[in-house]
Specification:
The complex is a heterodimer of chains A (114) and B (115).
Chain A lengths: L3 E4 L2 E4 L4 E8 L5 E7 L6 E7 L2 E5 L6 E7 L2 E7 L7 E8 L9 E2 L3 E5 L1
Parallel strand pairs in A: 2-11
Antiparallel strand pairs in A: 1-3, 3-8, 4-5, 4-9, 5-6, 7-8, 9-10, 9-11
Chain B lengths: L2 E4 L3 E5 L4 E3 L1 E4 L4 E8 L5 E7 L5 E3 L5 E5 L4 E6 L8 E9 L8 E2 L3 E6 L1
Parallel strand pairs in B: 2-12
Antiparallel strand pairs in B: 1-4, 3-9, 5-6, 5-10, 7-8, 8-9, 10-11, 10-12
Classes of the chains: A mainly beta (114), B mainly beta (115).
């Protein structure tokens, strides 16, 4: 069973909507990540948070806005998305940013932009 | 910077046959290597990892992988597959130095096991 919970599991939103994805972990991990998984493409790292500070932002469009209020919670706020943003969004956590012990992934949020 | 190449996008195999999923990496520094599995409509689950030490790493579900530094490879193997092994498999790499990097994933290999 995963120790990382993502909600909602599925989300359909229009291009003018504002919505948020939520990720929660109670593993005592200090680093959290957002990945985007599109069909036929590698997993794309979007954001990295270590001890609640954003340490990486891989040229992600500003229509995606992350928030990490504490070490257990991570949000991805969405607004004015495009159809090409439809994908599976995966949250992960690790004990440290180095990730040497591996990541624990959530089940993902399947996002469809219409 | 690191990169990962999974050499096969799809691998069809019959039940009880052996399988090898190939992974090559590129890095200018020492690395950690991982294999993850993703079943339909689920997140990624760690199969095994190489951090240091023995180059042959055993993981869950009967899988193993061998780290070959000279060939920069980390191929995944299983001597006898089951229908339930049908899934997407991802190889990943991160640097092992103190600064650390987030995991970089390959494009994935779809393993299809049929009877």
């Amino acid at each position: 069973e995963t120790g990382v919970t993502q909600t909602p599991r599925h989300l359909v939103m229009g291009m003018t909507n504002k919505k948020s994805l939520k990720c929660e972990q109670h593993l005592g991990h200090n680093a959290m990540y957002w990945y985007k998984q599109s069909a036929k493409k590698p997993l794309e790292l979007m954001f990295v948070y270590s001890l609640e500070e954003r340490v990486e932002n891989n040229s992600v469009p500003s229509r995606f806005s992350p928030e990490c209020p504490n070490s257990s919670h991570l949000f991805l706020h969405l607004h004015t998305l495009q159809p090409e943003d439809s994908a599976l969004y995966l949250c992960a956590s690790s004990q440290t940013r180095q990730g040497g012990l591996g990541y624990t992934f959530g089940s993902g949020t399947r996002l469809t932009v219409v | 910077a690191q990169s990962v190449t999974q050499l096969d996008s799809q691998v069809p195999v019959f039940e009880e046959a052996p399988v090898e999923l190939r992974c090559n990496y590129s890095s200018s520094v020492s690395v950690y290597l991982f294999w993850y599995v993703q079943y339909p409509n689920q997140g990624l689950q760690l199969l095994l990892k190489y951090l240091s030490g023995s180059t042959l790493v055993k993981g869950i579900n009967g899988f193993e992988a061998e780290f070959n530094k000279s060939q920069t490879s980390f191929h995944l193997r299983k001597p006898s597959v089951h229908i339930s092994d049908t899934a997407e498999y991802f190889c990943a790499v991160s640097s092992s130095n103190q600064a650390g990097t987030a995991l970089i994933f390959g494009k994935g290999t779809t393993l299809s096991v049929s009877s």
